[in-house]
Write a structure and sequence with these properties.
Blueprint (H helix, E strand, L loop, with lengths): L2 H15 L4 H16 L3 H13 L3 H11 L5 H17 L11 H13 L17 E9 L6 E6 L14 H5 L2 H5 L17 H10 L13 E2 L2 E2 L1 E6 L1 H7 L2 H5 L6 H9 L6 E7 L6 E7 L1
Antiparallel strand pairs: 1-2, 3-4, 5-6, 6-7
The structure holds zinc ion (ZN) (2 copies).
């Protein structure tokens, strides 16, 4: 057995033992990079397995098509299976690379330099896609200034708004000017007594896009931070699947659905975290 294969078997073992936990995924990503940079044929053969394991199905298929020996029946059979996955999944469901705290911090500093204010209830709005970047900039409907970051998630108002800058959301100007809101005030967990917190959530916080009515979780007497769109795989990679299942919101049947959810699939989970005790929670809905 060659060195690459040996290492692959060891990393795969760690990956299944950790149930797809963050360190085991990071280790596989490191190995993937090493194999991608190698010119060794044996390395490329193992790289097919790594792509396959991490669900980069298109990359696995493309690589095996290039290097596989088509007179080998085993290779042909595998190509057939991978082709089906590659055509229906692409690389879309690949296991995401977990970010290190340092990477997160660097990203936040970059956003701050671009003029992104701090949103308590939606701390990574570029990560979640609530804001997008425009190279040349767009004009904010509300303040008329040019902004490189513009809002893409729902804004409920009678007027049609094309662009909002982060600043006009953070200071409440957009909600006030258009008598609008970024989230429905009835679709929230009970248990938050301070009306100022509801005001901040619905009038000064970027929303998110659900399949159906969006819903905001609360814990420890306050609304939670929305962290992003996830499925069971992302919850495992973050190491929080058990934590989100420990929630009186869900019965056994619903817990099973969370365990089977796929990010971007029919059953979507939305991840929240309590700003006070740190507990992770989800909301889920269907397309
Ligand atoms: Zn503006
Ligand atoms: Zn809490």
């Amino acid at each position: 057995m060659n060195e690459y294969l040996k290492k692959y078997i060891e990393l795969k073992k760690r990956f299944s033992a950790a149930d797809g936990g963050p360190d085991s995924v990071r280790a596989l990503y490191g190995f993937k990079k090493e194999l991608e940079q190698s010119g060794d044929r044996q390395a490329k053969e193992v790289l097919v397995d790594v792509y396959d394991l991490l669900d980069f199905k298109k990359d696995a298929y493309d690589l095996l098509s290039r290097i596989g020996n088509r007179s080998d029946r085993k290779v042909l059979k595998r190509l057939g299976t991978l082709k089906e996955y590659a055509e229906s999944w692409g690389n879309h469901y690949a296991v995401p690379m977990p970010k290190t705290p340092k990477e997160k911090q660097q990203e936040k500093e970059r956003w701050a330099r671009m003029g992104l204010p701090v949103f308590r209830y939606h701390p990574d709005p570029l990560d979640t896609g609530a804001f997008k970047e425009s190279e040349e900039g767009v004009v904010c409907d509300c303040c008329g200034k040019i902004t490189r970051l513009f809002y893409t998630a729902p804004f409920f108002s009678v007027e049609d708004i094309d662009y909002l800058c982060p600043e006009c959301i953070a200071d409440g100007k957009a909600a006030q000017k258009y008598d609008g809101s970024f989230h429905d005030d009835y679709s929230v967990d009970d248990g938050v007594d301070d009306p100022e917190r509801l005001d901040e959530l619905i009038h000064r916080t970027p929303g998110y896009c659900g399949w159906q009515q969006e819903y905001w979780r609360a814990h420890c007497g306050d609304y939670c931070a929305f962290l992003g769109y996830v499925g069971a795989r992302e919850l495992r990679a973050l190491g929080v699947l058990d934590e989100v299942l420990d929630d009186p919101m869900w019965d056994e049947e619903q817990k099973e659905m969370i365990r089977e959810s796929v990010n971007g699939g029919h059953l979507q989970c939305y991840l929240f975290q309590c700003l006070h005790c740190g507990k992770h929670m989800v909301w889920m809905d269907f397309d």
